[in-house]
Amino acid sequence: MKHSFITLAFALALSCFATLQILCGQIVAAHQLSSPRVGAVRYVDGSVYLLYGLPNNYVLGPRVLDGVDAASFSEGGGIVAQKGTLTLLGSDFSPIGTFEAGESKPLLGINDNPSTAIAWLPAVQKLVHWNGQAFVSVSVPDLSREGEISFVSKRDPKVAFLLLHSSSGSVSEVSISLQTGQVLSAATVVGVQGPSFQHRSSIVSLDYRDLVIATPSNGNTRRFPLNADDLRMEQASSDCLHISSPATRRNWVLHFHNGDFDVAELPSPSARVTK
Predict the structure, then answer these.
(1) How many CB atoms neighbour CB 171 within 10 A?
(2) Are 148 and 164 contacting, i.e. CB atoms less than 8 angstroms apart?
(3) pLDDT for 195 beyond 50
(4) Left (φ > 0), alpha (ψ -120 to 50) or beta: where does 6 sit?
(5) Which long-range contacts (CB under 8 A, 24 or more apart) does 3-8 make?
(6) CA triplet 120, 122, 128: central angle to 5 degrees?
(7) Band of the pLDDT at 45, cuts 50, 70, 90?
(8) Among 54, 66, 101, 233, which one is least packed by beta carbons within 10 Å?
(9) What is the DSSP string of 126-172?
(10) Residue 199 contacts residue 256 (beta carbons within 8 Å)
């Protein structure tokens, strides 16, 4: 009798535990379904996942792409690089156009819609952008002697905007004609060091093991220690940056919202909830 009682109690405990796991999964899944989509993030293995959540509370959604070497996303679409090929994507991740760049480390950018998609090809010193019907390229003067490009954006149909950091760490903003490839202007960004990314009036930079958000117009600067010295940045949406450390396999999101921002560490893909 005692043995039967123990067996029954053990079976009931297992059943309760299984039910609790299901309920927890349903609660998290329901939270994910009710949370807004905030962007798409590329992990070190090349997989791209949708990102959902609210400030300081983010979850990964389904995997939407594989084998991606570089990416930039906005609410209106995205541009990705896969084995040397650039692909422009719609908001539903359907392909719009491609370009055989043959570049192993392109730098990509996109603003609110596909017409703003642009890529910097450092190996050949070219800009490639979408003109509304196809990708077109233009050669630019050799900028490698001035430093490394960390950010590229298409401000209007005729002008590209780049952020360049020198070996000393100083940052310059450079405007280039998309018609002729000639440099239109160049100016030093005061108070900013290292690889940088611009989001509206703020400049986000990577200073050794820190993430730095600066607003040059008013001199405000905030630092966030991330404890990794191989940090990289990609745009996850129009208001989100994905910061990653390939060596530590840690990932963060910098989310701008309502005139403020938050920095939160993201879960690993193995911890995501399947929708």
Answers:
(1) 25
(2) yes
(3) yes
(4) alpha
(5) none
(6) 30
(7) very high
(8) 66
(9) EEEEE-SSSEEEEE----TTT-EEEEEEEEETTEEEEEEE-TT-EEE
(10) yes
Tens-place pLDDT, residues 211-249:
999 987 788 899 999 989 899 999 999 999 999 999 999
Contact 246, 230 (CB under 8 A): yes
Query: Measured in whole angstroms, how far is the alpha carbon of residue 175 from the centre of its chain?
Result: 22
Residue with tokens 């490698």: 144
Is 37:255 a contact under the CB 8 Å cutoff? no
User: DSSP 3-state helix, strand, coil percentages of the chain (rounded to 5)?
Assistant: 15, 50, 35
What's the pLDDT at 1?
A: 47
Q: How far apart are CA 198 and CA 41, in angstroms?
A: 18
Amino acid at position 27, single letter: I
Element (H, E) at 18: helix 2-34
| pTM of the entire predicted model | 0.85
Cβ–Cβ < 8 Å for 43, 80: no
For 89-136, how does the pLDDT look when each residue is reduced to its tens digit (9 = 90+)?
Answer: 999 999 999 999 999 999 999 998 999 999 999 999 999 999 999 999
Instruction: Give pLDDT, residue 220.
Output: 87
Long-range contacts of 128-135 (CB under 8 A, 24+ apart): 128/86, 128/99, 128/101, 129/154, 129/160, 129/178, 130/79, 130/88, 130/96, 130/97, 131/157, 134/97, 135/86, 135/88, 135/97, 135/98, 135/99
Exposed, middle or buried by CB within 10 Å (0-12, 13-18, 19+), for 176? buried
Structure token pair of residue 100 = 């055989």
For residue 272, what pLDDT is reported? 63
